[in-house]
Amino acid sequence: MTPAWEFFFGHVNYWLFTVMMMTGLFIVISRGNLVKKIVGLNIFQSAVFMFYISIGKVTGGTAPIFPVDMKIDSETIYTNPLPHVLILTAIVVGIATTSLGLALVVRIREAYDTIEEDEILAIEKDMVRAETQ
């Protein structure tokens, strides 16, 4: 295999994260629908989760569980569990944030009868214009 292909396949997880992140960012920036924006944020967030989990993996590492007799081999390589624990916490926070965002979208839909960003801005502009006259 050529060095270029070796580099590409050796870092394929980083390419996938980048594609996922850019897809989520594109959805957030390009769409006016508030629910689609929340979905884009979730895609972006999932890419970040996968990135942190992948950098927490140590090749040849084992779970950091010490033997019962506490005879620890100094040659044993352990995987750091901290990134995985942090991602579990981030997943819970992400679910709560998504729930809050969707609840706000429901309230916006009740108030403005739409969830399209441009229509909401037009309604707001009309309301401000009506108040100033």
Strand and helix map with partners:
Blueprint: H1 3-10, H2 12-30, H3 34-55, H4 82-112, H5 117-132
Explain this structure to me?
- The protein starts with a helix and ends with a helix.
- The mean pLDDT is 89.
- The longest helix has 31 residues, at 82-112.
- The protein has one domain: Helix Hairpins, CATH 1.10.287.3510.
- It has 133 residues and is mainly α.
- It has 5 helices and no strands.
- It has helices spanning 3-10, 12-30, 34-55, 82-112, 117-132.
- It is elongated, with a radius of gyration of 23 Å.
- Helix content is 72%, strand content 0%.
Features:
single chain, 133 residues, mainly alpha, Helix Hairpins, 5 helices, 72% helix
How is this structure best summarized?
The protein is mainly α and 133 residues long. 72% of the residues lie in helices and 0% in strands.
| Whole-number total of structural domains | 1
Instruction: Quote the beta fraction.
Output: under 5%
Could you name the ranges where pLDDT drops below 50 across 5 or more consecutive residues? none
| Number of separate helices | 5
What is the approximate shape? Answer: elongated
Question: What class do helices, strands and sheet pairing give?
Answer: mainly alpha
**Oligomer class:** single chain
Helix and strand succession?
HHHHH
The CATH architecture classification is Orthogonal Bundle
What is the number of strand segments? 0
Work out the helicity level.
over 70%
Mean pLDDT: 89
In the CATH hierarchy, the third-tier topology is known as: Helix Hairpins
How many angstroms does the end-to-end distance come to? 72 Å
CA-based gyration radius? 23 Å
At the first level of CATH, the class is: Mainly Alpha
Largest β sheet strand count, sense and barrel closure: none
